[in-house]
Amino acid sequence: MDDAIGIGVLTRPLLFVALAALTFLPLEHIAAAHARRRCRFATDLAFATISQVLVQVGLVFATGVVLARLDALAVDRPLLVDIGDRRARFVAEVAVGLLLFELGGYLYHRLAHAVPALWRLHEIHHSSETMDWLASFRQHPLEIVLVTLAQNAPLVLLGVPLGAHATVLVALKLATVFVHSNFRVPIGPLRFVA
């Protein structure tokens, strides 16, 4: 493995955690949804750092091999290739990618609650005693590999281009941290239906 790639594999997850901390710690301090004292900070920080680095290495090798093989089975004509305007096609590819990615994640999540072997992996995520941005990182490394495959395989098989695929990954990784954060979002009249 090239040294620059190896360093990127190790530093990218740590950089994301640092950026998430710089973003969400102040927001949770200013507009906390719930006033709670943080429990088991060191455990969740270990999931967010050490575990994320180990998972990143595993993802590069394990899921990289599987997704590369799935790419060989992908459709010959990528999805939405007939949209002539490049920007419109990119927006459509991202929209379809978001839908497919979320559907794959939803189906995995349902299975994780129904299949005992998957639940044993998934219950680690539910074991967090504090709901905040750091709780989003509490996952078993094997579960991260499985959910990564479930979410990314449809995009690879349907030929969602790498640029749109990467945009989906970044957007939904940020969304995952956001939905777990202890941040009060004013939703106005929607509070009556939420």
Distance between the termini: 48 Å
Order of helices and strands: HHHHHH
Instruction: Round the Cα radius of gyration to an integer and report it.
Output: 18 Å
The helix/strand class is: mainly alpha
Largest sheet: none
Task: Detail the poorly predicted runs.
Answer: none
The dominant shape is globular
**How many helices does DSSP assign?**
6
How many beta-strand elements? 0
Which band does the percent of strand residues land in?
under 5%
- Please indicate the count of domains: 1
Helix content: over 70%
Mean pLDDT across residues: 80
Question: How does this structure look, described?
Answer:
This protein is an all-alpha fold and 194 residues long. The chain has one domain. 71% of the residues lie in helices and 0% in strands. The chain has six helices and no strands. α3 crosses α4 (116-126) and α3 (86-114) packs across α5 (141-157).
